[in-house]
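Bench notes, afternoon.
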Amino acid sequence: MKIFLIVFCFIANWANSQDVKYSFYTNFVKDSLPLKEENASYSNQNKWYNTISINDSIFVYNSLDLDIDFYGDSLVFDLHSIEYHHEDHVRLLGQHHYKKLDKGWLIGTNKGEWGGSLFWVEENQKDYKYIANANVNKIFNWEGKTVVLEGVSHINISEGYLIEVHTDLTLDTLVVFPESPYNAVVGGDNVLYVVTDFILYKVDKTGIYTQLYDFSDWPQLNSDLTYSNNQLYLGMLNGVARFDLKENTIEWFTFKNE
């Protein structure tokens, strides 16, 4: 039986032992905001930074240094040991997201333009149910609800949703985003922050979203968002952006040796 670790613990522990993470405040320095004409050169680089908060300290790592099997909670069974219908085996391809609930697990997959799925696996680790087509980017708790962040961005298509999963596995759409959402994090006062293809949003408990910043002219985002002490950290290609929620200001940081 293969036991999967929680991805947060995996990253933190693996990074500690392999020394692949960097302290944000020690290893990164404030730089001028990246200009649109400079962004073409960024595409030739290979530093895809992600951020993580450990004991209220921010650390940064290059996601290309890690081989991550999944995101979310741990599974105590081999997902592929379940007897699926043939079409459901195909739906299990792609990036995986897991969420442990009282009586089983929510399983989300994302294959980009090729689609994705949302499954339910019973606690007996044998029975399962296909719930819906969904390009799952995250499964988490917010405002007492189990929610799924889903969406796809491909060529001229960019759309996404925040969806509530009820205990009977029915779905309700809470928010419709004008772009594909990459990631979300819950901050102070239970406010939800969501980063899409190029927009940073704040979402209140009623589902109303407000634009905080437009990253259209910046280097490409890396599906990354971390909250700490009233600030948001966004890992990007070759740098990290920090958005101050109190001052509504943005700063750009690059690695000292670059």
